[in-house]
Amino acid sequence: MRTLERLEALLGALPSGLLEVRLRSGKPAQYRCADGERFGEVIPPERLRAILAALADHSLYAREAELKQGYFTMDDGCRVGVCGRLVCDGERPTAMADIGSLCVRVCREIRGACDGFYGALFEGKSLRSALIVSGPGLGKTTALRDAARRLSEDGYNVCIADERHELAACAQGVPALDVGPRTDVMDGCPKHIAVTRLLRAASPQVIVTDEIGDRRDAEALQEAARCGVRILASAHAGSLEQLAARRNVYLDVFDLAVLLGDEPGRVKEIRAL
Predict the structure, then answer these.
(1) Potential cystine with 234: which of 1, 33, 140, 246 (Cβ 3.0-4.6 Å)?
(2) At CA 63, angle to CA 207 and CA 134, rounded to 5?
(3) 14: DSSP letter
């Protein structure tokens, strides 16, 4: 059962154009839609726990490793963020306890989501590496997925390092989302490990990955670039100036940055790096 079907069974009829569901203990359900916000009924603490259990297939233990990071990903690519009391051993998270809220981000396949920048990926016949940049919830993952599909359809061997299971939503190793006919996916492991394995195993022409952030990710992508592989990736930033202050994110791997606009699917700026 897909995530929206599960939520509808748990919460009743959902509004159309749904992008995100936020459920907070003792507060009204909040629905963020393409045309604005809606609010639903109050979610008591015991019901919030029941909804979390149902989304996790009544096996929170199996999701323990993900929950320590504050989220888990559904089989169709939707991500369930979990907030509450995080139990730590020093600086190492060991468990998520006393759940206070859930944030379900709806995974969407939108053909054409990359149209605003796809042409800029090419300089003549040469493909360039690009970093897709925006704040949260403005379509970076959707645009990356669509670009991977289109490059794959256009003849490139594409590899996806899908740490959070959101780009391809693999089930038993097979993508549930359309990422193209020439695409291979390594999912469920840290990006820097996946990139290294893909270089060895799949002879990629293009590597696609989501939300790079630390130096290990950037160094793995730098090694891929040295091998002649083009990179498409995303990073959180509110502006290209903010991005420039975080050189560790891209380490000269990328030829251009694409800043998405204030609405999903809109491109605000494309700049050479």
Answers:
(1) 140
(2) 40
(3) P
The Cα–Cα gap between 263 and 139 comes to 8
Amino acid occupying residue 222: Q
Do 227 and 199 meet the contact criterion of CB atoms below 8 Å apart? yes
What are the tokens at 83? 């907030």
pTM of the entire predicted model: 0.82
Nearest Cα to Cα of residue 220 among 245, 198, 242, 188: 198
Q: What are the chain's domains?
A: 3-105 (3.30.450.90), 115-272 (3.40.50.300)
Tell me if 106 sits within 8 A of 80, measured CB to CB: no
Look at the block and give the residue holding tokens 């130096």: 215
**8-state DSSP, 106:** P
DSSP annotation of 177:
S
Q: Give residue-wise pLDDT tens across range 58-116.
A: 888 778 878 888 888 888 888 899 999 988 888 888 888 889 999 999 888 889 999 99
Q: Which long-range contacts (CB under 8 A, 24 or more apart) does 212-220 make?
A: 212/249, 212/250, 213/249, 214/248, 215/248, 216/190, 216/192, 217/191, 217/192, 218/248, 218/249, 218/250, 218/251, 218/253, 219/192, 219/251, 220/191, 220/192, 220/193, 220/195, 220/196
